[in-house]
Amino acid sequence: DRGPGAHIIMDTLCDYHNFDIQWGNHDILWMGAASGNDACIANVIRMCMRYANLATLEDGYGINLLPLATFAMDVYGDDPCSIFVPKMNFADSEYNEKTLRLITQMHKAITIIQLKLEAEIISRRPDFEMENRKLLHLIDFKRGVFVYEGKEYPLRDTN
Question: Under which EC number(s) is this enzyme classified (predicted)?
Answer without folding.
Answer: 3.1.3.11
